[in-house]
Structure formats: structure tokens, C-alpha cells
Amino acid sequence: SQKIEQNSEALNIQEGKTATLTCNYTNYSPAYLQWYRQDPGRGPVFLLLIRENEKEKRKERLKVTFDTTLKQSLFHITASQPADSATYLCALGSNDYKLSFGAGTTVTVRA
Amino acid sequence: DADVTQTPRNRITKTGKRIMLECSQTKGHDRMYWYRQDPGLGLRLIYYSFDVKDINKGEISDGYSVSRQAQAKFSLSLESAIPNQTALYFCATSDSRGRKFTQYFGPGTRLLVL
Q: Nearest CA of chain A to the CA of B90: how many Å?
């Protein structure tokens, strides 16, 4: 069966450091992978999409890598700030616009 | 105004009751989705609709039904609520034009079944 695993532990980091989150998957061949941010009591908000033929994508302080051989994506937040504290969700997508989500990793950035 | 709205935001109901959660969007998107979120399990797809006449079951549709009344409205019903349907429910939309694949989520409905 399909499985999507994100860091099982919450991530606590110091302001200014880089947070690195992992998303591993099995029994799945996604056409693309997305990362969403979710704040407590709110719906997820889209951050980045990376397609199966892309290795890396950047957006401001965010960087995503996608290795279809390892079946893994890494999500980096550089120069982290307390405002980056949230839960980050990995989602694998198909060309029929359906997404399968991981359980998320909670990041706390200490000032 | 929010592009994707959900009503109610919070709901407490009793076992066996029928309830409806409503979702409206002003984004003009053709595709709409219902998810539930449980701690540690992530978002799971209940139903999705690619247009008004196209409704499909997701991975956990048992005990739920949906209605796409118009392109902008997608309702989720629990025919006879049970305690393990206590969860956070999200509606989402996406636009098939341009193959952007981004989903836009509503604020969620917190449901408690006693």
C-alpha cells in the first residue's frame, strides 16, 4: 500500500538556523510533490510544487529537492524566523489533481 | 473576503444525527474536495468532484455522502454520525486550467460527535 512518511519528531531550532524536513514515500510514482504550511486551527496553505523531472526548486528562503530514485523530498527553511513556526505537510500528486498527504512535521523556531 | 468558506466552523452533534457541512468558493475553480484530518494521520480524502456532474469517492467515503449543487458549492453529509467521525474537516478547490495543481483550503469545520 502507499505510504508517505515525514519526520516523526517535531523540529525545534534556533532562529537563523536552517530547518530541514524529510518526506519519504513508498509504492507511489507521483507526477509532482507539493509542500503546504498549516497553522493551528487553519487550513493548509500551498508553498511550493516540484515536478517529477525537477531536482530542486527555490522560493525566497525555501528550497525543495526531489529524488525519485530515493523516493524522497527534502524541504529546507533557511535563516529561520519565529514566524516560520508551523506544521509543514508533504503531498504527493497525480495528473488527475488528487493529492495524498503525509502527517506533517511541526517546526518551532526559538528566538 | 475568504475565497473558500466553510459552515459551520464548529459543530457538536449526537450519535445517529444527520448533519451537513457546507463549502462555498468564489475562485471559479472546477474541482472541489472534502478531507478529514485526525491527529497523527494527516489529511485523508473523503470525496472529490471534478465538475457538477462528476463526483468520486476518496479513500474513506464510507458513512459520508456529498452533493455538488453548483460549481461553487460542495456539501458533505454524515447520514448517521458516529463518534469516530469526530475530526477536523476541510474543503479544498483547484483549477484544472493551466495544470497548476495547487489546492486552496477553507478554514475547516471542527466536528465533535458525542
A: 7
